[in-house]
Amino acid sequence: MKSAFGLIMLFASLLAGGVEASTRPLFAGQHQEIGEVETLYQGNQLVVSVQVTEVGWCLERSHLYVGESQPLSSAPGQFPYSHELGCARSDIYRVDVNAVDQYVAYHAESKQSSYPIGGTVSYSVKFPGGDSYFDATINGTGPFNAWCMDLERFISPGTTYTNCELRSLNDPDLGVVDKEQNLNAVSWILNQDWSQSQYSWQDIQGAIWKLTDDSNPTSPAGGISWNETNALAIVALAVENGSTYQAGSFEGLVLLCRNTAGAITQQITVVAVPALNFFIGEDTAWADGDSNWYNGKGNKIGWGTYWLEVYPTL
After folding, report:
1. For residue range 219-255, what is the model confidence (pLDDT) as tens digits?
2. Is residue 292 part of a domain?
3. Does residue 40 belong to any structural domain of this protein?
């Protein structure tokens, strides 16, 4: 009876979040620390949370091993869990487990951008832009074509905002756009040459609002007017052709400008920057574990590691 009561109390403690998480550094290319990996038992799940902390870095995909026995292979493609991440600054897995110790290995493919993704930049816009809703300047560089994805907030043209977080449009965890399921379609729009078409930049902006803002705006809105038929045609083309993120000519950068309390107070915009030299490096990344893999001759295989995550006891 006492043992059963102890298990009940332990389970209740886990559900209440009373168990401390363990944290390990995430290394890219073996020596560059770019983030941290946190593991935490919550009830019948092991939660693995990853946060990139180094500015300019993001995760393209990840692989996770969780099991009661040691992982036999260091090949991430053979791990049972994986995520496609685009250019994410965070990652999370929730794995159902038994109430016993679990072996864990976390691997990711990381990328480094020439832009300070995840960092803070200065940002200003001019309205209207030449061939876009805004002409934008980031850290004094530009102008770049920029578009609004948010009709609920405002931004003051000519004002330099100095507390703007830079994120990739290809980040699945932005959490700030009403219709994030359509961001791939927006990336398709950014990568088309509309200069020789019947569509104006006003039509393009109207289409982007229809794809991103849950108010489903009709012309006029946001200080401009557009051809409704043209905007809907662009939406249809983008949905049909933009099922995956595309960056043939341009990458999308999302600007999140915050007040001193950390709240996003200015209009959310996406800036089209040249894809050439946008990424300047890529590296394998591993969470720093305690154990290595070895071949039959006792030689260490690679530099990847894993560890034993001990299940909490009373």
Report:
1. 999 999 999 999 999 999 999 999 889 888 999 999 9
2. yes
3. yes
Together in a domain, 237 and 149: yes
User: Would the pLDDT of 14 be above 70?
Assistant: no
pLDDT band at 314 (very low <50, low <70, confident <90, very high): low
Domain residues for the domain of 52 are 2-114+281-309
Dihedral sign (CA 157, 138, 182, 275): positive
Tally of structural domains, the chain: 2
Rounded Cα distance, 62 and 80, in Å: 11
**Domain match, 177 and 257 both:** yes
Angle between the N-to-C axes of helices 228-241 and 201-212, in degrees from 0 to 180, rounded to the nearest 10: 60
Q: Are 209 and 226 in contact (CB under 8 A)?
A: no
- Segment 165-171 mean pLDDT: 96
How far lies 120's CA from each of 42, 142, 192, 226, 257, in Å?
Answer: 33, 17, 29, 33, 9
pTM: 0.88
Residues 246 and 143 in one domain: yes
Residues 93 and 135 in one domain: no
How far is residue 147's CA from residue 163's CA, in Å, rounded to a whole number?
A: 19
